[in-house]
Every structure is written in structure tokens, then in C-alpha cells.
Design goal:
This protein is mostly helical and 161 residues long. The chain folds into 3 domains: 25-87; 92-125; 126-161. It has helices spanning 2-16, 25-30, 32-36, 41-69, 80-85, 87-90, 98-125, 130-160. The radius of gyration is 41 Å and the shape is elongated. The termini are far apart.
């Protein structure tokens, strides 16, 4: 049914169009000036300039639309409008400034304190395990070395004064 309608419309169109078609690309785009200017080098170069201008403008427009929509974000080309939509989602966390450096330092110290607390909790649950005895002995050893160095510094300070 649809194919029959298409065929009927085509037949009617061909029947009523008795005028011959004499158009080409130049007459369609530039009118009769384009067709007459094929042999004239100045007009031909102007035609090329218009074509390149049209092509570069179209590519520029498409590129701008792709950039604005975030299509080029895998190439790390993102517009500020996307970054401003959600700073948590689009900010670069590897940029170091004073605020981020303070946060990283506090987080590192908190991690160390948590690790020490977890270790102390494990050791208090198993006071007489091999690891806990070894840890206490090593801790006592490091404490005695630290106290020895402190005593030496104190003695040096009193002797030199």
C-alpha cells in the first residue's frame, strides 16, 4: 500500500514536470555568477575561499559544541561550566594547595594513631602471646636507647656549660 502510494506520487510528479532540468552545483550554490565564473580565476579563488570559510566555520561550531557538552573530557578538555556543576565530582584531587596539604597531613597522622590504637587493642586482648611479648621487649629496648641518648645529651649540656 505504501509502496503503491510512493509510486503514484512519483508518476504524478514526473507527468507534470515537462521542463528539463539544467542545474549543476555552481548554479545551485552561487546562481548564474558561479556558473559563469568557472573560467575566471579570481571568481574561482573566491569560490574556494567561501568553501574553506564554510568548512572551517562548520568544524569550529561542531568542535565548540563537543567541547561544551564534555565530549572531549577523556582528553582532559573540560569546560569550566561542567567543573562548576559539581566540584566534588569534577575537581582534581591531585592538586596540592595549603588546604589539601593540611587535610592530607591530618589524615596521615590520624591513620598512624588508629593503627597504633588497633595494635594496642590487639595486644591487650592477648597479653601473653609471642607477638605481644616480643613487642613489649622491643619497645623497652627502643625506650632504653632513647633514654640513653637523652642522658648523654643532658650530660653534654652540663659539661659544656
Amino acid at each position: 500500500m505504501v509502496n503503491g502510494m510512493k509510486f503514484l506520487v512519483l508518476l504524478i510528479f514526473l507527468f507534470f514536470s515537462d521542463k528539463s532540468v539544467q542545474a549543476n552545483a555552481f548554479t545551485e550554490i552561487f546562481g548564474s555568477e558561479g556558473a559563469a565564473g568557472i573560467n575566471n580565476p579570481k571568481i574561482r579563488s573566491l569560490s574556494y575561499a567561501f568553501q574553506y570559510l564554510t568548512l572551517s566555520g562548520s568544524l569550529g561550531y561542531v568542535g565548540k559544541q563537543l567541547f561544551d557538552s564534555g565530549f572531549l573530557s577523556p582528553l582532559n578538555l573540560k569546560p569550566d561550566s561542567i567543573n562548576n556543576l559539581s566540584p566534588l565530582g569534577y575537581n582534581d584531587y591531585f592538586k596540592i594547595n595549603n588546604h589539601n596539604a593540611n587535610i592530607l597531613a591530618v589524615k596521615a597522622s590520624v591513620d598512624k594513631i588508629n593503627l597504633a590504637n588497633n595494635l594496642n587493642n590487639k595486644l591487650t586482648k592477648k597479653k601473653f602471646s609471642f607477638k605481644s611479648i616480643e613487642f613489649r621487649n622491643n619497645n623497652n629496648f627502643y625506650k632504653s636507647i632513647y633514654n640513653y641518648e637523652e642522658r648523654d645529651q643532658l650530660i653534654e649540656r652540663y659539661i659544656n656549660d
